Amino acid sequence: MNLKIQITLIFAFLSCFVACEKANRDLANTTVESDPHSFSRPHEVALKHLDLDMTVDFTVRQISGKASLTIENKAAANQLVLDSRDLRIERVTLDDSQAQTTFSLGEPQPYLGQPLTIDISPETRVVQVYYSTSPDAAALQWLTPEQTFGKKQPFLFTQSQAILARTWIPCQDSPSVRMTYSAKVKTDPSLLAVMSAENPTQKSFDGIYTFNLSQPIPSYLMALAVGDLEFRAIGARSGVYTDPSLVEKAAWELADTERMMAATERLYGPYRWGRYDIIILPPSFPFGGMENPRLTFATPTILAGDRSLVSLVAHELAHSWSGNLVTNATWNDFWLNEGFTTYLENRIMEEAYGKEYAEMLAAISFQDWQTELENLGADSAASHLRWNLAGRDPDEAMNDIAYDKGAYFLRLLESAFGREKWDAFLRGYFDKFAFQTMTTDRFVDYLRRELIKGDQALEAKLKIAAWIDGPGVPANVVRVQSAAFKKVEAQLQDWIGGKPATNFDTTNWTTHHWLHFLRNLPDSLDHKKMIELDAAFGFNKAGNSEILFEWLLQSIKNRYEPASPALEQFLLGMGRRKFLEPLYEELAKSPEGLQRAMSIYKKARTTYHPVSVNTIDRTLNWPN
After folding, report:
1. Distance between CA atoms of 191 and 168, rounded to whole angstroms?
2. Whole-prediction pTM value?
3. Does residue 255 form part of some domain?
């Protein structure tokens, strides 16, 4: 080979190497996406660190204090734009100066709030905003002592996802913006304050608590809870906070948390947040769980007494990789958080409890997907994985599609590439994009580069477009067959054929066996059949919220009046939107049911979180 050819080949190689490295960098770099749900302009000025100095006042139901924002002025801009909603802005100062700078609040917009525009200079590095919250701030729920388990002290908790952080902190309220944070919280010395950060385990004598989180997070993961809390360690790096009356029960229920952490690390790499603790909140918490870093906020409904609902812990723990570590850039890409997490949840449960258990969970997930499609319509754009939520409140637009269809898309990819290769891909994905944001297009590009590698036949087989931007259930879905559920179905058919319910063999049935049984009851059951089931299995008195919910739904459909007291008690004592919305919807299908729903809701409405209230108001067409 002559010298000229050698030089040509060397240059060709170097050009290819540089191009590939550039592509890798471009893919890895966090791109600030245009976010229809934020007024902020982080491509000009980006928030890098938030320091809070807050006082929590239960008397006036208000958080007040100062937010110090360390910024990076990328464009030498003269303005910083933040998101705010129902905040009272008192004054704003810059850097070390006590002199006030000028600011303005834009016109309020439904659910988005107002842009807070602050005049800065290109040299400004820190902006201090002095402010206070509204008593009706949508992220905050202030509970009286009577609304807590202990009945002795008031309680406050926050719920920032999706765009509610702006109702208690002036910030760039977009998942595409990541920041570290520190905080000082002052409250009544009889109460303990905890955040999505490094936390105390005992009450402070003066009611002052300090917090720090060194890993950058988006604003929706900002979280605070204040109340009569007690801590119990349940592992070397895990523990539970809750009301003193529940702490022993919660510690027993969640004892397998460390086991789940170890299982996830074996699959997807190290846990990068230090500790993983859980706080069991009062009943009004509107979700099953919220994956706030280092401290999952969880519903008390997971305390079933038999550890049968701990898959919720697996789900929230999985968010420490999918969501908290690699984050959807906008809420249009929500499936990148929840679809991945639902898939990981299933893998964690398989690793910790075996394949049969995981198969039941996957089958339940498919059922949830089918139910959501029935509600949305099989051709609805809301059944796509990639959403277009511009002009819509993301809190109200989100549904189970992101969770279940997203998980089944990843199950398809696992099947196509084989588990060994797929697991290596996922671990590499979490390593490469750690503490960054991700869009659907960037994920698909990465998938093509790392696994598909130009194989057009394989790409056609995967039908990626049908999954991402198509409705319904794609034709190549990989269905899961649960052997355990086949046995449940056989007994159900025997009962329909006349076998007494008391002759059922329910030995070792888990929550998921019972859910499958109840969900597959005939569309219409007469009063005698409902009485038989209730007498045999005591459904009206079920202590497991998932089982009781399914039974109450069947009772409404079949007008089973003996369940009425249990239904009212459930709706009055429950704040979890997953349960509330279907029950109120089913009641509202008949005139007498709607009347009953209105009567119960009138009593319950003030005890529900604003997130649940917004949904049920719309469900019942509640007069404003």
Report:
1. 20
2. 0.92
3. yes
